[in-house]
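Re-running the complex after MR caught last week's input typo. The corrected sequence lines follow. Everything else is unchanged.
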Amino acid sequence: MVFVRFFDWLSGLLGFRKNITLGVYGEINVGKTTLANKISLDWAGEEVGIVSKIPHETRTIQKKEKVVIPLNGRRKIVLNLLDMPGLATKVDYKQFMKYGIKRKAAKKRAKEATRGVIEAIKWLDNVDTVLAVMDATKDPLTQVNLTLLGNLEAKGIPVIIVANKIDKKRAKPKRIKSAFPEYPVIPISALKGKNIDRLYKAIGKHAK
Amino acid sequence: MRNKKLRNKNSKKRNARKNAKKNVKKNSKNKRAKVNAKNIARSNLKIDFISSNVLNKKSEKSRITYILDIVKDGTILVTDGVMSPDEELDLIRETMRKVDDGFPGIEVCSLKREAEGYQRFAEQLMEQRYSIRKVINKIIGRASPQIDLKYGMTLIGPSRLIKKIKKSPDSFSVFAQLQK
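Corrected-run output:
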């Protein structure tokens, strides 16, 4: 045990291993959990959370520790992967009722969702790198995205913008690139696994 | 003895009247607020244009409370200033705390005017000073220090009214719908 710890410490010191806390942030229903599941399945063999079409399915922070991604040569990156609840400025319980959820359960879900948003904001101080997930089929210039990126910039936290859902016909990842030219933007499909290697390379390059 | 009893009776009556008055005031205030919110939401659209000077005079916490009180009443607020990203997050957090059956949240949009040259340098300096003071105040248990809004424009409204905000880098369009 002591020997393993010493080896871990030494490999970290020599730059072979990087330990980082990676937060998956973004608006609701942009595919954060699908992406976290893909990363976790690829490198840890387990999923992180449940994916659903109903907004605010992830209402608490889902964690997956020690997700090891091998990089070039001997180098590797050890992720403490955090799948965050979706950020939003509004949570309407009536929105959930459209999906067949009863009023009482919808109200409960809304309450949990608001708590989830607060929790996700609180955790911004504890992440080393952020994957800001955006839906490539939608307009990226939303206040939530701008606020998130502004905060990360002010805190000096490295960000990789993930333009998700490029498997859909309406996807326009170029729109995200032109909206945020100062950030690395990786167009992917977390669902189909398209371009996911590019994302791993970007994590290895930009993560601190 | 009789005098004492009379005095007690009178004081009880006075207290009862006071309490009744208080209750009437409270109820009428609540009713007025509810009626205002209903009227605004149902038929009229109220937009308050507030100078950033008003908001700059307030501390961060009371500024957010002030904004949310206005918006929760069903009013759209427009001001000639932009909050810092940190404050915007605080606004979202505070909104989430206030979400209830009648208030699902807010819609926000801001246009920041990029400061140039000396103004930009001064703005950065102010931000640094603010973040240092904020950390120090947090350690010694004081409230967050005041910081002025940046150059630009912000619109904040109840999400019940504002259905969509379409933003481009230099402008935004607001689509509002009054409830019938």
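None of the earlier attempt is carried over here. Chain B has five helices and six strands. Chain B has a mean pLDDT of 81.
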